[in-house]
Write a structure and sequence with these properties.
- By secondary structure, the protein is mostly helical.
- It contains one helix and no strands.
- It is rod-shaped and about 40 Å long.
- 0% of the residues are buried.
């Protein structure tokens, strides 16, 4: 369960980072 939670949080952080980067480009 902890591993799944870690993957979920890591994936969410990666998504947020991608969104921030895309907005920075705009």
């Amino acid at each position: 369960f902890k591993l799944m939670l870690f993957v979920l949080v890591d994936g969410w952080t990666l998504i947020m980072g991608s969104l921030t980067a895309s907005f920075a480009v705009l």
